[in-house]
């Protein structure tokens, strides 16, 4: 069922697992606790529900976080959950997601850096500190110098993407993206994994705010959410301009 270079963005629904196949990239001599302090963000930090608040199981985390340089790209995902969940159930859904990523996929921790529910609530994903550039496991070949933001739900063609969800993604994206980069612009990235759409070492020019499908053979983040990327970019730019 799972062929090489074919995947969906993934997570757990209450009755079944829908699992992402992106493996985290292991860089040589990764930067850990010696990362330099980042420049001040271009947008204010939004309210974020911490791992402690959604009761992440820290005993599942296998290794310390790995830190990379500044965030040059934002990758938007969807998790594959049903869309009619009660937002009060989001923490439970995240705990199931964490277990699926660690015990099911064998990863160090949850793959995404942040998760946003349909009510616009932003949740801390992978451990390591929301204010730092923690390398996730969300975009094979492009996990370094990026942030993975997952929308809790499945956004097939015709599905209405809640405005609150769009705004939540934009808020955390505007805060995390390096202040020198226009969220409506193009960035230069380098693939680190042949399993992406680009060979290892290949220079790639991507939207600063991209969908998972832009670098991997996958449907993620769903047709409906992918169509909202221009709106997310515009909202990110507005939030950053407002701080000036």
Automatic annotation (TrEMBL):
Keywords: Signal. CDD domains: PGRP (cd06583). InterPro entries: Amidase/PGRP_sf (IPR036505), Amidase_domain (IPR002502), PGRP (IPR015510), PGRP_domain_met/bac (IPR006619). Residues 46-194 form the Peptidoglycan recognition protein family domain. Residues 1-28 form the signal peptide. It comes from the Bacteria. GO terms for molecular function: N-acetylmuramoyl-L-alanine amidase activity; zinc ion binding. The keyword Signal applies. Belongs to the N-acetylmuramoyl-L-alanine amidase 2 family. One of its GO terms (biological process) is peptidoglycan catabolic process. This is N-acetylmuramoyl-L-alanine amidase. It comes from Streptomyces sp. gb1(2016).
